[in-house]
Specification:
Elements lengths: L15 E7 L2 H8 L7 H17 L6 E5 L2 E6 L8 H19 L8 E7 L5 H26 L5 H8 L4 H10 L9 H5 L1 E14 L4 E13 L8 H19 L1
Antiparallel strand pairs: 1-3, 1-4, 2-3, 2-5, 5-6
Helix pairs in contact: 2-3, 4-5, 4-6
GO molecular function, one term: tRNA guanylyltransferase activity
EC number: 2.7.7.79
Cofactor: Mg(2+)
């Protein structure tokens, strides 16, 4: 009966991205009474879930990026024999349970997952694409909230926004006294989660002295550059190189 398993033999090449998306999270956000257009507690739960995926899922991502209810995991070494069916089920299952716990949800929540094979040189372009989506969500989210605050229904407000250019959304928000370029960076550009080395106090049992040792930790960065710029490309290259070095050390 083994040959009846659909896609059990489908594998991917490395490196690749696992992209996770929350399912029906707008219902959860509404029921929890999260603030619109952004709630820091929701974002914190997403970041904690991302950090858990790095440290405890067995997927061993080298780098992760999250915004809204989306998580991208960049994986550079073979895991689970690169079996697509195994990768997406483990990632989605782990993220679902981790977020349910971190968010303190009363009912189970779920993520879907897809595999995106990428060459290493393509990752900056991928990240720039997802960050651009974060920015679009940011502009639309603020504009929608400002319109509904005037008494418009959510449906009518969205109809007014449909087809509006970025400059129009900026102008609309500014007319309400909101400068979208001055909102918190994590709202505009997302959050990165990656491994890095840090110096910590340790203990040498032979000399019975306190010594400085290097420990690998998960770092969270909420003040990201624009990935599409040379600065952003250089920033990412530095973090990825350090993460890969950590893994190999």
């Amino acid at each position: 009966m083994k040959d009846h398993e659909i896609y059990s033999g489908l594998i991917t090449t490395v490196p690749f991205v696992l992209r996770l998306d929350g399912r029906s999270f707008h219902h959860f956000s509404r029921d929890q009474g999260f603030e619109k257009p952004y709630d820091y507690n929701f974002s914190k739960a997403m970041v904690e879930t991302t950090a858990s995926l790095l440290s405890d899922s067995g997927l061993s991502p080298s780098f992760a990026y999250t915004f809204s209810d989306e998580i991208s995991l960049y994986i550079t070494t073979p895991v689970f024999d690169c079996r697509v069916e195994k990768l997406v089920s483990v990632a989605a299952g782990f993220a679902s349970s981790a977020f349910t716990l971190h968010a303190g949800a009363a009912h189970p929540l779920s993520f879907d997952c897809r595999v995106v094979p990428l060459a290493e040189f393509q990752l900056p372009k991928y990240l720039a694409w997802r960050q651009a989506e974060a920015w679009r969500n940011h502009m639309n989210g603020y504009a929608h909230k400002l319109l509904t605050d005037t008494g418009l229904s959510a449906t009518v407000a969205q109809r007014k926004l449909d087809g509006m250019k970025a400059s129009d959304l900026h102008e609309l928000a500014f007319s309400f006294g909101v400068n979208l370029s001055e909102t918190p960076a994590w709202q505009r550009r997302g959050t990165a989660v990656y491994r890095t080395l840090t110096e910590r106090d340790g203990y040498n049992p032979i000399t019975k002295e306190t010594v400085q040792v290097m420990r690998r930790v998960v770092a969270i960065d909420e003040n990201l550059p624009l990935f599409k710029t040379p600065e952003g490309t250089a920033w990412f290259a530095e973090k990825l190189a350090a993460s890969l070095s950590d893994v190999q050390s």
